[in-house]
Predict the structure.
Amino acid sequence: MRRKISVLFISIVAFWSCGKDTKPTLVDSTGRINEVLIVMKNSDWTGVVGDSIKQIILTPLDGLPQEEAQFSVNQVSPTAFNNLFKRTRNILFIGYGDGDNNFYANKNIYASPQITLTVLGQNEQELLANISKHKQDIINTFKNNDLAVYQQKVTKDHYNAKSVETFNKLGFTLKLPRTYKKVEDSGDFLWYRNDFGKGQMNLIAFEIPYLNGNDFKWNHIHQAIDTITKYNIPGQFDNTYMMIEKRYDPIIKSLKLADLNALEARGLWVVKDDFMGGPFITYAIADKPNQRILILEGFSYSPATKKRDFVFEMEAILKTIAIGN
């Protein structure tokens, strides 16, 4: 029975993947940001194969005050995978099949925009091995797809860069949505805020000197950020101000932004001697030609809500960075 279901499942995917000559009109995809539909047998989902997928998809996201999985998940069996489910933007197929092509992606098979990933194995042991082998590919594919979709959505109506003084003076731009309102734009320091019913999201940007290699280390960058925010982001009471929470080390990773070396930091911020705080995401970009480190940061305050998707929105906006002309 498993073999019949697996063959049917693979045949359905293959049919839609190979129809290159016809271009049917695709419906709009559905699904929330950071949401993945997993199509696999119910018995596999409740067994060791399902456990291996859950360990990847439901891993907690770094840098949040409360534990939140990096993706929200729904699971259906291949036989229940009907037209309603086919509209989902992110779909992961897990099944059994022969051949060398045991991991592949397809775009816009059933809806648009959409990404589907397929992981196959000839037996349970091989399937588990292939899932483990491609665990980072699974995460990156769905995250990058959602980033691209969300960037297009959230930045559809953005400020003209020429109207933002800090962009002009510091020589960079962001696609800054008009839902964010100016708090400060001095030319040296940018701060825009999006107030919503249960909290706020904030975006700030500034530069610090880059004189030698030691400057581009997190401890130095951390101290510089705290110095800038102490002066520019005061708390509601005297002698209170925003700072990075010292009790928890941020999670740091290296990446490229605007074709330059950069550091990403995810952690928690607080207001000194007050009870405000929340998650932040920071990008420090090493702009050696201009002897500076460009700092882009998003931080949110929403004490009564989950925070994963707020950080994701700020990440999507900050990654629209462009430097120079």
Observations:
- The first strand starts at residue 27 and ends at 28.
- DSSP finds nine helices and 17 strands in the chain.
